[in-house]
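Researcher: Let's run the pair from yesterday's discussion. Sequence first, then C-alpha cells, for each.
Model: Starting with the first of the pair.
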Amino acid sequence: MRAVGGPGASAGRERVPAAGPEPLATASLAIQRAARQAHRQADGARRRREVLRRIDGVLDQLETRHIAPGEEADLAPLELAAIVRGLAWVVQGPLPGPVQDAPSSYHLHLALLAWQSDLLDLVVPDRRRRFPDLDSDGDEPLVPAPRSVRRRAAHASGVGGQPDR
C-alpha cells in the first residue's frame, strides 16, 4: 500500500492498493505467448527457406542432366522417386500434386519451378510488386520442349555436343 498525497497531506492519509500480481502475471503470459508465436513464425520461415534451397538444388541437378551431351536426359523411375522422397522428407508433409505425380524429370522440373514461385510469393509477399519484370504469366501450363530442341539449345550455348538434325 502507498500513501496518496504529497507534503502537507492530512494525517489520515488515504491508502491506495499497490498493483497486485494479476496484471504482472497477465503481462508475463502475453509476452510468453508472443515469444512462442514469433518462434513458430521463424521456424516456418526457416522451413520454407530450406525447402527453397532443396528445390533449387534439385533444379540445378535436373538442368545439368537435361543438357548433358550424350546422356539419357530423363531420369529412371527409381531416381525420380528418390528425388521426390527427398523433397517430401524436407517438407515433412505432402508435396504439391504436380511434383508428387510428375511422370518424367522434365515434368518434375516444371512442377518444381511453379512450386518454387509459389513459395517465393509466401517468403517475399511483395516480390511481384517490387520486381515487376518477373515472369508472372502462369496461365498456360508449361510443356517440355522436344529433345531435339533442347539439344540444339545446349549446343548453341556451348554446353552440348552435336545438335540433332
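Model: Moving on to the second of the pair.
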Amino acid sequence: MIVRLSLCVALVTLMFALPDVARSQTLIGPPSGVGLGIFAPNDNRAKQGGDTQLNAELRYSFIGIPLTNSRTLVDLGYEGGRDNGHSTIIPLTIGEYFGDGKIGGSPYVGAGVGGYYFDQSGSSATERIGGYLAAGYRFTIAFFEAKYQVVNDGTGVLLDAGVTF
C-alpha cells in the first residue's frame, strides 16, 4: 500500500515537473542518472543477504525549491544479496538536494523519505516508510555519493558511483 501510494505521488509529481525540466538551467546537475554501489546494512535481518550487498538506483531530478540552488530527486533503487538467507529492499524515495553549483564539479547534501518494499528470509514481504541523509560530489557527468538510510530492518550505509545524462 505504501509503495503504491509513493509510486502514484512520484508519477504525478513527474507529470507536473517535466515541462519545468526543459526550462531549468541550474548548474547542480542534469535531470537523470544511474548509480551502482554497495549497501552495508546494520540490521541483523538485512544482514541475511550479507555484510556487503549490491546497491543500484535509477534517479530522476527536476527543479527544486524556487529561489534556491536545489534539485528534487525521485529515486528507485535495489539493495540486496544472498548469504545465510536473502534480503531484498526496493526503495522509492523523494528527496531534496542542495549544492553550490560550481561548473565542473560541486559537493552536495540531501535528505529524503519514501516507501521501502522488503523481501527478507524469515518474514513475509512487507512495506515500510523510511528516510535517508546523503552527501556527495557531482562532476560534469558523474557523481559519488554516500547515504545513511534509516528504515526498520534495513538501516545502513550506501556508497554509490554513477553517471548522469
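Researcher: Give me one sentence on the second I can quote.
Model: The chain has one domain: 2-164.
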